[in-house]
Amino acid sequence: MLAAITLSDLKRRVIPNAVLLRGALVGVALVIATDPSSLVERAAAASAAGSFLLAAALAHPRGMGMGDVKLAAVMGLFLDAAVAPAMAVALCAGAVVGVGLMLRHGAGARKQAVPFGPFLAMGGVVGLLAGNQILDAYLSSFATW
Q1: How far apart (Å, rounded) are the C-alpha atoms in residues 118 and 21?
Q2: Three-state SS for 3?
Q3: Residue of 66, 60, 73, 91 whose CA lies nearest to 16
Q4: pLDDT at residue 145 is higher than 70
Q5: Under DSSP, is residue 1 helix (H, G, I), strand (E, B) or coil?
Q6: pLDDT digits (tens, 9 = 90+) for 45-83
Q7: pLDDT tens for residues 97-143?
Q8: What does 82-119 look like in DSSP terms, one character per residue?
Q9: Helix (DSSP H) and strand (DSSP E) numbers for the chain
Q10: Using CA atoms, how far apart are residues 79 and 88, in angstroms rounded to an integer?
């Protein structure tokens, strides 16, 4: 799903609803089949991730698309709490590219469109592979105080 979204967003600047819907259905089916007790937590993670990007999309409608919002929500279904580090990685990577474009092209680069789906996909992979460990390390840092 993430590969299809990345390619589509890079080529056409669109994250297809059909891919997101299928991904959400597969995510819900997997949760029901493997860990139905976590469905409420995963729905909350999906809502939080989607709401976070929805706020950005509403604040700057030309800067963030609704496909990104829906992708974040689907990622929340799959990743549960690990969606938080996934979103952090995506935002940091997007910011690095944005700053790089501004350094290279000046202030005019602020109006240059950069697809965010690939950054979310990269964050999703990080969240899948190391999200829980990142959360554990972060939360355990508070226990040492």
Answers
A1: 18
A2: helix
A3: 66
A4: no
A5: coil
A6: 999 999 999 999 999 888 889 999 999 999 999 999 999
A7: 989 999 998 887 777 888 999 999 999 999 999 999 999 999 998 87
A8: GHHHHHHHHHHHHHHHHHHHHHHHGGGGGGS---SHHH
A9: 6, 0
A10: 13
Q: Where are the domains of the chain?
A: 2-143
Angstrom distances, CA of residue 127 to CA of 51, 88, 115, 140, 143: 18, 10, 20, 18, 22
Give the closest residue to 124 by CA, choosing from 94, 88, 96, 95: 88
Residue type, 64: M
pLDDT recorded at residue 68 = 96
Whether the model pTM is above 0.70: yes
Q: What is the largest CA-CA distance in the chain?
A: 51
